[in-house]
Recover the amino acids of this structure.
């Protein structure tokens, strides 16, 4: 049963990037505005409530913009409040959890690819004629929702790992915002904004991911896009700032999220003592990162091209405290659910410049919408090490690989702590051969397990996988306890088989489920490259560096040419195998 009373939860980062959970319930009053002429008087009531010691929490829709500047043009037809704020005595410092379930139907775009292409071409014409330098063009994805909105929010939040998440349930509607973007933070007379412009999808491997992030950092298109918005926000802040205090604190920072890398810049200023919260919104709203520049003429283009109102998407969600601190996000990565109809809407878009291409921007949209389908998987990082009479084999290589994966997944990694735990374990297990299982949890907790290694016999049989693996799956490139892709094949292999040889959608050999593969062809030893979709085995890397084996793409046909097949890993080292 969906809750009827308003319930609001914020998980916003403070100035030190520490998440401060606040939950608001049982409002003393709810202030809403459905007409443009009612927005400023309603906002004034919100400000008055804060001035006498209450908290205010809620949102403004994008379509409330003309209240702050009549020159702003927006789409008509929104049924959502333009302004909605609850007034509260005080919040609870707690997270909201849910044990409920939910379902969504397929998310379908509101426009066709042809219409999208026409819109991009029209924006380029407007750029050519000087009406805009950059336009943030967005579309909607629609779905049918059934179940617990809070449960969906918690999944989105985990999938996105954002710093400005919010759940707002008004009774009839729920807003699930997993936004990574700060609109502004106002505290003790200082205001900070952090516009987000520039996106690239995450790579599957550590190497590909690092390359993608570096590409974004050096991308002339994305830098131009970002600096346009920085200039716009500097100008906006200048309307409320004390003279000479507007500062660009950070430029072109790359932030990492589960599905994308984003480029951000940080601008701050000291606000004039006479400026009110309404004055701040008059200067800044809507955020330039989700309009484009120049703001007025670009918003005209948006209103003409977009076929639906944005509503809370691209508006502002946040709270104001009695000590005049205000913290608002830009509601991107945000789902709006109407519980009366079961309709769910997700807005997504990007900044269009002269260098933009329809296909490139559409791929960026798909990357940003991926969060809707992501089901977060709980896992630990894993390394299997050989302990030989108290000495670890390839220890530094294992720790480097774990450190790279920790950076990729955002896992707390303390090399000194891990080494100490390993040394303590080796001190107590200093004789014989032991397979050591090193586990690292997301919070940095270390677990070490060990088991004696039995002598291996002669060559054993392996089988070829009955279907391909998807080489874009990140878990092929990182060793974790999420071994679903491997256990599926292990369950299917016959009892007499030692392991399963995997191959990808391009017909390229990749690896075994527990080790790397080496083929002897014409007297030379070959192993597949990482780009085929496999784990960078530490023993494999050592053999490549010493020139004992070589990398090249191997296909299923190469199996017939191989005179020998080897299974290798850092625990068992070499083992010859035969294909059943």
């Amino acid at each position: 049963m969906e809750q009827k009373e308003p319930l609001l939860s914020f998980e916003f980062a403070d100035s030190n990037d520490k998440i401060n959970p606040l939950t608001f319930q049982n409002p003393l009053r709810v202030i809403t505005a459905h007409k443009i002429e009612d927005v400023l008087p309603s906002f004034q009531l919100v400000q008055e409530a804060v001035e006498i010691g209450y908290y205010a929490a809620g949102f403004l829709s994008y379509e409330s913009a003309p209240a702050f500047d009549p020159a702003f043009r927006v789409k008509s037809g929104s049924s959502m409040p333009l302004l909605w704020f609850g007034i509260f005595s005080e919040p609870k410092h707690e997270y909201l959890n849910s044990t409920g379930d939910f379902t969504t139907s397929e998310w379908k775009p509101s426009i066709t690819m042809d219409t999208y292409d026409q819109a991009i071409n029209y924006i380029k014409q407007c750029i050519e004629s000087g009406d805009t330098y950059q336009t943030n063009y967005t579309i909607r994805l629609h779905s049918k929702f059934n179940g617990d909105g809070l449960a969906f929010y918690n999944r989105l939040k985990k999938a996105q790992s954002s710093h400005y998440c919010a759940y707002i349930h008004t009774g009839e509607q729920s807003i699930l915002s997993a936004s990574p973007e700060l609109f502004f933070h106002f505290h003790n007379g200082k205001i900070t904004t952090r516009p987000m412009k520039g996106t690239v999808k995450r790579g599957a491997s550590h190497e590909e991911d690092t390359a993608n992030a570096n590409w974004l950092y050096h991308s002339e298109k994305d830098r131009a896009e970002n600096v346009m918005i920085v200039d716009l926000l500097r100008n906006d802040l200048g309307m409320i700032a004390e003279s000479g205090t507007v500062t660009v604190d950070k430029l072109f920072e790359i932030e990492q999220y589960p599905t994308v890398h984003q480029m951000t810049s940080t601008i701050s200023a000291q606000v004039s003592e006479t400026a009110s919260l309404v004055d701040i919104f008059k200067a800044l709203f809507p955020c330039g990162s989700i309009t484009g520049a120049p703001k007025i003429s670009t918003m005209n283009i948006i209103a003409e091209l977009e076929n639906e109102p944005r509503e809370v998407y691209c508006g502002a969600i946040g709270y104001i405290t009695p000590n005049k601190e205000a913290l608002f996000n830009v509601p991107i990565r945000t789902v709006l659910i109407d519980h009366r109809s079961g309709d769910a809407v997700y807005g997504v878009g990007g900044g269009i410049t002269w260098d933009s291409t329809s296909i490139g921007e559409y791929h960026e949209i798909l990357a940003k919408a991926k969060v809707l389908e992501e089901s977060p998987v709980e896992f630990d990082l894993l390394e299997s090490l050989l302990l030989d009479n108290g000495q670890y084999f390839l220890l530094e290589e294992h720790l480097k690989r774990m450190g790279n994966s920790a950076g990729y997944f955002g896992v707390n990694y303390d090399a000194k702590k891990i080494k100490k735990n390993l040394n303590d374990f080796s001190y107590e297990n200093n004789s014989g051969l032991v397979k050591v299982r090193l586990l690292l949890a997301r919070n940095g907790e270390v677990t070490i397990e060990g088991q004696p290694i039995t002598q291996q016999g002669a060559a054993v049989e392996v089988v070829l996988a009955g279907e391909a693996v998807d080489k874009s799956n990140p878990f092929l490139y990182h060793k974790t306890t999420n071994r679903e892709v491997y256990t599926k094949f292990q369950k299917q292999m016959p009892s007499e088989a030692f392991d399963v040889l995997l191959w990808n959608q391009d017909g390229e050999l990749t690896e075994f489920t527990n080790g790397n593969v080496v083929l002897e062809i014409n007297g030379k030893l070959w192993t597949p490259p990482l780009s085929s979709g496999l784990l960078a085995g530490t023993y494999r890397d050592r053999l490549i560096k010493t020139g004992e084996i070589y990398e090249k793409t191997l296909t299923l046909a190469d199996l017939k040419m191989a005179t020998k097949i080897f299974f290798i890993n850092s625990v068992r080292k070499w083992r010859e195998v035969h294909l059943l």
About this structure: The first strand starts at residue 7 and ends at 13. Residues 353 and 375 are 33 Å apart (CA to CA). The domain at 381-452 is CATH 3.30.470.10 (D-amino Acid Aminotransferase; Chain A, domain 1). The chain has a mean pLDDT of 95.
